[in-house]
Write a structure and sequence with these properties.
The complex is a heterodimer. By secondary structure, chain A is α/β, with parallel strands linked by helices. Helix content of chain A is 57%, strand content 14%. Chain A has three domains: 17-105 and 212-275, D-Maltodextrin-Binding Protein, domain 2 (3-Layer(aba) Sandwich); 111-204, 3-Layer(aba) Sandwich (D-Maltodextrin-Binding Protein, domain 2), CATH 3.40.190.10; 279-494, MetI-like fold (Orthogonal Bundle), CATH 1.10.3720. In chain A, helix 12 (278-323) runs antiparallel to helix 18. The termini of chain A are far apart. Chain B has one domain: P-loop containing nucleotide triphosphate hydrolases (Rossmann fold), CATH 3.40.50.300. Chain B is 37% helix and 26% strand. Chain B is globular and about 55 Å long. Classes of the chains: A alpha/beta, B alpha/beta.
C-alpha cells in the first residue's frame, strides 16, 4: 500500500505541471519591425524580444501558464483572433469603440499619446494645426491615422511598417510623422537627423484583445494585470524599455522616483548604432542563416506540395473540360476563369478568414496549401489543355480503333505526349508559385519573405538582407529548372536524342 | 463477314452516305473505289464506330450494329475484332515500334507483356521490320511506318482488316512494300476491306471491287469485269483512263 502511494506521488509530481496550466497562453502579434512591442533581437535575430514579450511572459507566469507566440500580420490580428489561431492579441492594440464592437478588451496595460516627429531643421511644425497642407506619414489602420484623417487639409500617407515613414521623413518625402510615443521613441529619436516636437497629442490605452464571450479568460488576465501593477513588475518592464513617463505614472498612480535604468532601450540603441566592419558584417549575415533556412524550408515545403495539388487537380479539370458531357465542362471552365481571374491574396484571405464563418476552419499551413493549390490548378489546367489540344486528333482515333477506351487512350497515348509539351510552362508556373508563396504571411505563416521583413526592419538593412533573400529564392528555384531540362530531354522523342536512322 | 444494309450518314444536314448496301465475304480482299469525296472513308469509319451512322444496320465480325442502347458497347467489341490502318499511319510518336504494337493487347486484352512482345516480334518479322524493333516512328520511312501500323493492328488478332487509303501518302517507290504485306495477309485468309485509289492493286489483288459514287454503291463485281465491261455508265467514265 505504501509502495503504491509512493508511486502515485511520483506520478503526480511528474505530470502535475502538465495537468495544471497545460493550456498555453497563445498570443498573436506582428514581430516585423515592431520595436519596442515585439521584434527580432538585433543582438540575436533568432530571438524575439520586446516589452510585450516581457509583459505576456509575466502574465503567463502569474496565471501559471506557458506563453506561446503566434506570428500574424498586424492588420489581420483581429480576424486571426476570431478564427481561434490564438486566444489573445497583445500588440499595441488601442482600445477604441469600433474595436469594442468586434472583440473584448482587458483593462488597459499601457497609456500613451501620439508624438509628432519632424526633421532637425524644420521650425514651423509643433502641432497638428501646423501640419496644414503638409504631408504627414503614419501607420495604416492606427489611431494616429484616424486623427490625421479627421483634420482637414493634411495630406496623409499610410505605411505598413514603422521604419519606412521615418526613412521617408529623412528623405524629405514627408514633412512630419505622427506615431504612438513608443514607436517615435524607438524609430524617430535615435535618428540624429530627426527630432520630436510639441506636446503629447491625444491619449490612448493599449488593451489585450480577446474573443467576445471569453470573459473567464478576460477576468483571469485582468486579475493578473492588477497583481503585476501592484507588485511593481509592470513598472519595471516599462522602465527597462525606457517607456516610463508622466502619462503612465499618472495612470498607474505611482510617482516615486525611477528605480532601474532603461537597460533594454540602451541595448537597442547600442545594437542599431553599431558600425560594423566587413568582417563583422559577414558574421552578422551568417547569423541570419538559421532563420533564413527555416523560412526557406517553409517556402519549399509549401510550394512543392501546392504544386502537386495544382498539377493533379489541374489535370482533372482539363479532362472534365475536354471529355465530359454538359454541364460539367462549363463548371470546369468557370473554375479556371474564376481561379485565375481573382487575386491570390483575396483567395487566401477568403479561405483563411471567411470560411470559418461557415464552419470550415483550416490550419494555417493547410489553408495556404489549399489557397495556392486551388489557384495554380487553374493555370495548370490551361497548360494541360494547351498540351492535349496540341496532340493531333488522329492519335485519339488510332488508340480508339485499337479497342482502347477514351480513358485508356488519354492515359497511355495522349497525356504522355502532352506532358512533354507542357514541361516548360509548368516549370515556369512552379517558379512563379515559389515566389507567390510569400503571400501566405498574411495568414500567419512565416516563410522566407516574412523573415526578410523581420531581419531587414531589425537592422535597417533592406539592401544586404534583400540580396541574401533574393539569392536564396534563386537557389531554391535552380534545381527545379535543371530537373525540368532533364525531364524535357527524358520525355522527348525527337531525332536528336535517338540513334541514327538505319534504312 | 460484313453486311451493310441501307446505311445513311450526313454531316450538318449534308447527306454523305445515301443508303449503302454491301456484302463482304470472309477471306476475301474487297476494294472500294470511286471519286474523291463520295463517302468511301466515311463508310469505312462507320464500320468501327469512328463515325456514327444515322440510319441502317451493319453486321460485322458477328456483331449486329444498329442505333440502339448497346451501340457504344458493341463498338468497343467491334474494335477489338476489326483492325484499322490509316492513310497517315498514326503511329504513336512517343513509343518505340515494339511499344506501339504491344500496348493495345496489354491494355485492352490484358495480355502478358512477355507474350505480347513475342507476338510483336513475330508480326514485325512478318512485315519485314524485325530489325527496327526499338526505333521510334520518326526514324522510319513512310513505307516502314505503314507496315508497323499494319503490325500494330494485327496485334489485336482481328478477324477483319480495314484500310483507309493505305498507300496514298507514300512515295511511289514505297507503295509496293505495303501492298506486298496486304497480299501476304490475303494468302493467309484474312478478310480485308480496302479503300484505295491504287487501281493497279485493285485489279491485281482484289477478289471483288465495289464502286461508290455520290453516297451509293453503283456496282459490285470481280476485277476482270469491272475493268473490262462495267455495267454502269458512271463507273465506265471513272475507269476510262485505267481500262
Amino acid at each position: 500500500m505504501k509502495k503504491i502511494q509512493g508511486f502515485s506521488f511520483v506520478v503526480l509530481f511528474l505530470i502535475g505541471p502538465f495537468l495544471y496550466g497545460q493550456e498555453p497562453l497563445r498570443w498573436g502579434a506582428d514581430s516585423e519591425g515592431g520595436a519596442p512591442y515585439i521584434f527580432q533581437d538585433p543582438a540575436n535575430p533568432t530571438r524575439t524580444i520586446g516589452f510585450e514579450v516581457d509583459l505576456v511572459n509575466a502574465l503567463a507566469q502569474e496565471m501559471n501558464k506557458k506563453a506561446e507566440f503566434i506570428q500574424n500580420q498586424w492588420d489581420s490580428l483581429i480576424p486571426g483572433l476570431n478564427r481561434k489561431n490564438y486566444d489573445i492579441v497583445v500588440n499595441g492594440l488601442e482600445i477604441t469603440e469600433d474595436r469594442k464592437a468586434e472583440i473584448l478588451f482587458s483593462d488597459p496595460y499601457y497609456v500613451t499619446y501620439e508624438q509628432l516627429t519632424v526633421r532637425k531643421e524644420t521650425q514651423n511644425i509643433e502641432s497638428l494645426k501646423d501640419c496644414k497642407n503638409k504631408v504627414v506619414g503614419t501607420l495604416k489602420a492606427s489611431l494616429a491615422h484616424r486623427m490625421l484623417e479627421a483634420q482637414k487639409d493634411i495630406q496623409v500617407r499610410s505605411y505598413d511598417g514603422q521604419i519606412n515613414p521615418y526613412q521617408d521623413l529623412e528623405n524629405k518625402r514627408l514633412d512630419a510623422v505622427l506615431m504612438d510615443f513608443p514607436i517615435a521613441l524607438y524609430y524617430g529619436s535615435p535618428n540624429p537627423k530627426l527630432k520630436s516636437v510639441g506636446a503629447p497629442i491625444g491619449r490612448m490605452e493599449y488593451g489585450i484583445g480577446l474573443r467576445r464571450g471569453d470573459t473567464p479568460l478576460a477576468h483571469d488576465i485582468n486579475a493578473a494585470l492588477k497583481r503585476l501593477s501592484q507588485n511593481g513588475k509592470l513598472r519595471e518592464i516599462y522602465e527597462r524599455w525606457g517607456m516610463w513617463n508622466a502619462t503612465i505614472a499618472d495612470f498607474l498612480n505611482d510617482h516615486s522616483p525611477s528605480r532601474i535604468p532603461p537597460t533594454e532601450y540602451e541595448a537597442y540603441l547600442k545594437a542599431i548604432g553599431i558600425k560594423r566592419d566587413w568582417k563583422e558584417k559577414v558574421y552578422q549575415y551568417a547569423s541570419y542563416l538559421p532563420l533564413l533556412v527555416k523560412g526557406a524550408i517553409m517556402t519549399v515545403e509549401l510550394s512543392l506540395l501546392a504544386m502537386v495539388v495544382a498539377v493533379i487537380l489541374g489535370l482533372g479539370i482539363t479532362l472534365i473540360r475536354l471529355y465530359t458531357p454538359a454541364p460539367l465542362p462549363w463548371l470546369a471552365t468557370s473554375y479556371v476563369e474564376v481561379g485565375r481571374g481573382t487575386p491570390l491574396l483575396i483567395q487566401l484571405f477568403f479561405i483563411f478568414y471567411a470560411l470559418p464563418s461557415i464552419g470550415i476552419t483550416f490550419e494555417p499551413f493547410v489553408a495556404a496549401l489549399v489557397g495556392l493549390g486551388l489557384n495554380y490548378a487553374a493555370y495548370e489546367a490551361e497548360n494541360y489543355r494547351a498540351g492535349i489540344l496540341a496532340i493531333p486528333r488522329h492519335q485519339m482515333e488510332a488508340a480508339l480503333a485499337l479497342g482502347m477506351s477514351k480513358l485508356q487512350a488519354l492515359r497511355h497515348i495522349i497525356i504522355p505526349q502532352a506532358v512533354r509539351i507542357i514541361i516548360p510552362p509548368v516549370t515556369n508556373d512552379f517558379i512563379s508559385l515559389l515566389k507567390d508563396s510569400s503571400l501566405v504571411s498574411v495568414i500567419t505563416l512565416v516563410e522566407l519573405t516574412k523573415i526578410y521583413g523581420q531581419l531587414a526592419s531589425t537592422y535597417y538593412d533592406y539592401f544586404g538582407t534583400g540580396v541574401m533573400v533574393a539569392i536564396m529564392y534563386f537557389l531554391i528555384g535552380l534545381p527545379f529548372v535543371r530537373l525540368s531540362h532533364w525531364a524535357e530531354k527524358y520525355f522527348s522523342f525527337d531525332r536528336e536524342r535517338l540513334p541514327q536512322k538505319t534504312n | 463477314m460484313i453486311r451493310i444494309c441501307d446505311l445513311h450518314k450526313s454531316y450538318n444536314g449534308q447527306p454523305i452516305l445515301k443508303g449503302i448496301n454491301l456484302e463482304i465475304a470472309p477471306h476475301e480482299l474487297t476494294v472500294i473505289i470511286g471519286p474523291s469525296g463520295t463517302g468511301k472513308s466515311t463508310l469505312l469509319r462507320c464500320l468501327n464506330g469512328l463515325e456514327v451512322f444515322d440510319d441502317g444496320e451493319v453486321f460485322i465480325a458477328d456483331i449486329h450494329l444498329k442505333q440502339d442502347k448497346e451501340f457504344h458497347e458493341k463498338i468497343r467489341q467491334i474494335r477489338t475484332r476489326v483492325g484499322m490502318v490509316f492513310q497517315s499511319f498514326h503511329l504513336f510518336p512517343h513509343l518505340t515500334v515494339l511499344e506501339n504494337i504491344v500496348r493495345a493487347p496489354i491494355i485492352v486484352k490484358k495480355m502478358e507483356r512477355k507474350a505480347a512482345e513475342n507476338m510483336a516480334r513475330e508480326l514485325l518479322y512478318k512485315v519485314g521490320l524485325i530489325s527496327h524493333v526499338s526505333h521510334y516512328p520518326s526514324q522510319l520511312s513512310g513505307g516502314q511506318q505503314q507496315r508497323a501500323a499494319i503490325a500494330r493492328a494485327l496485334a489485336m488478332s482481328p478477324q477483319i482488316m480495314l484500310y483507309d487509303e493505305p498507300t496514298s501518302s507514300l512515295d511511289p517507290g514505297l507503295v509496293d512494300e505495303v501492298l506486298t504485306v496486304m497480299k501476304k495477309l490475303h494468302n493467309e485468309g484474312m478478310t480485308q476491306l480496302v479503300v484505295t485509289h491504287h487501281m493497279q492493286f485493285a485489279r491485281d489483288a482484289a477478289d471483288k471491287i465495289a464502286y461508290i459514287e455520290d453516297g451509293k454503291v453503283l456496282e459490285t463485281s470481280s476485277p476482270q469485269k469491272m475493268f473490262s465491261t462495267p455495267s454502269d455508265e458512271r463507273t465506265k467514265k471513272f475507269l476510262k483512263r485505267f481500262i
